[in-house]
């Protein structure tokens, strides 16, 4: 059965806004080539539903979104992990991935295959519950610990005002309570083997400060004020797409922000971009070079001229592909770089 889907988005690449923001031309002018290096991570955007509505969200996630990977798609992702030992990590994201009905089954299957499972966890979903069904999700911390999932948790800042300004009123207090509960289970504690990493996004059109400096600040403040421990802080640049782009355009800051990213271009950061070792899966099973390309409707092209999908997954062909770049890639290559694992240099 042919489950490939139309390559709708190869014609939907955003039109060049300014020649100076042409990322492919920039790479060419610097004599840089960025081919794939491997596929060690399968990143699955399992649902766009979320209990939060964050102003910087590149997914445009919210409680109103209904897009979700089918059960067949979830099962196929597990099959790929079993078929390709090179893919060592399953990175589950959303939305709030925990809101997908097959989330826990997927985690269990991946762990049974001895794969590392990373969950992009927003810390508040365990308190808010399912935004549609009202089902409690308070069991999730124990579930995560039992399956030894790595947790990557958003905490825009260690102060309430800035966190709530970006993610909504009351988010900071819930996030602190969530971190304390995870600490009680061993997460973030030395020797526990339970990794708890935090994510920092700037509040506004700014580049993040040095990751090591911010990490020291976070550790000092969270430990002294709340007794919270964590492993690492990841700094991620706000990507100029979707909800954040709309904010920039409405405030007349879009061109200035793009120029700021361009002026901070770092060739070393470019060499470490995540799309070189990762493949991203959309809610409909389409494949993308990264989560940001996914949100820009820029899929990987399959051999039939249609979007490549998990159902016609071809590892060798994906290793030969030409990664698709656009102006938003300036966000991943500015300053110390930005990826789902934080700075790249």
Outline the structure in words.
The protein has an 8-stranded mixed beta sheet with strand order 6-5-4-3-2-1-7-8. It is globular. The termini are far apart. The chain is built from 13 helices and 8 strands. It is 33% helix and 10% strand. With 345 residues, the protein is of the alpha/beta class. Helix 3 links the parallel strand 2 (89-93) and strand 3. The protein has one domain: TIM Barrel, CATH 3.20.20. It has helices at residues 23-29, 71-83, 103-112, 125-128, 140-146, 160-167, 171-184, 211-226, 242-250, 254-263, 267-271, 291-295, 315-320; strands spanning 41-45, 89-93, 116-121, 150-154, 196-200, 232-235, 278-281, 287-288. The longest helix has 16 residues, at 211-226.
CATH topology: TIM Barrel
Report the C-alpha radius of gyration, rounded.
Answer: 19 Å
Number of continuous helical runs: 13
Number of domains: 1
Main sheet characteristics: 8 strands, mixed
Strand pairing plus helix content: what structural class? alpha/beta
**Which spans have pLDDT < 50 for at least 5 consecutive residues?**
1-16
Q: Reading side by side through the largest sheet, how are the strands ordered?
A: 6-5-4-3-2-1-7-8
> Could you tell me how far the N terminus lies from the C terminus, measured between alpha carbons in angstroms?
44 Å
Oligomer: single chain
Order of helices and strands: HEHEHEHHEHHEHEHHHEEHH
Mean of residue pLDDT?
A: 91
Which second-level CATH architecture applies? Alpha-Beta Barrel
Shape: globular
Number of strands: 8
The CATH C-level name is Alpha Beta
Tell me roughly what share of residues is in helical segments.
25-40%
> Which percent band covers the strand fraction?
5-15%
């Amino acid at each position: 059965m042919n489950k490939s889907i139309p390559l709708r988005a190869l014609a939907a690449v955003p039109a060049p806004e300014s020649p100076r923001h042409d990322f492919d031309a920039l790479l060419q002018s610097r004599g840089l080539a960025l081919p794939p290096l491997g596929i060690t991570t399968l990143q699955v955007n399992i649902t766009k539903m979320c209990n939060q509505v964050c102003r910087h969200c590149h997914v445009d996630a919210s409680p109103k979104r209904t897009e979700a990977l089918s059960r067949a798609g979830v099962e196929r992702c597990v099959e790929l992990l079993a078929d390709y030992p090179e893919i060592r990590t399953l990175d589950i994201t959303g939305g709030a991935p925990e809101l997908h009905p097959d989330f826990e089954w997927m985690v269990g299957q991946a762990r049974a295959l001895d794969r590392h499972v990373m969950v992009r966890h927003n810390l508040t979903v365990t308190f808010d519950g399912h935004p549609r069904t009202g089902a409690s999700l308070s069991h999730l911390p124990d579930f995560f610990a039992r399956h030894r999932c790595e947790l990557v948790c958003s905490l825009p800042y260690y102060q309430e005002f800035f966190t709530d300004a970006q993610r909504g009123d009351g988010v900071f207090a819930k996030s602190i309570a969530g971190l304390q509960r995870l600490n009680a289970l061993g997460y973030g504690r030395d020797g526990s083997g339970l990794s708890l990493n935090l994510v920092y996004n700037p509040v506004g059109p700014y580049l993040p400060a040095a990751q090591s400096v911010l990490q020291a600040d976070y550790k000092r403040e969270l430990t002294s004020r709340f007794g919270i421990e964590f492993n690492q802080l990841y700094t991620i640049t706000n990507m100029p797409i979707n909800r954040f782009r709309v904010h920039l355009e409405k405030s007349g800051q879009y061109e200035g922000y793009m120029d700021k990213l361009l002026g901070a271009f770092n060739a070393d950061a470019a060499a470490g971009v995540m799309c070189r070792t990762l493949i991203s899966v959309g809610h409909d099973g389409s494949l993308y070079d990264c989560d940001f390309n996914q949100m820009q409707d820029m899929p990987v092209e399959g051999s039939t001229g249609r979007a490549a999908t998990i159902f016609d997954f071809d590892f060798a062909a994906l290793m030969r592909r030409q990664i698709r770049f656009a102006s938003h890639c300036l966000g991943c290559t500015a300053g110390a770089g930005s990826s789902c694992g934080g700075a790249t240099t």
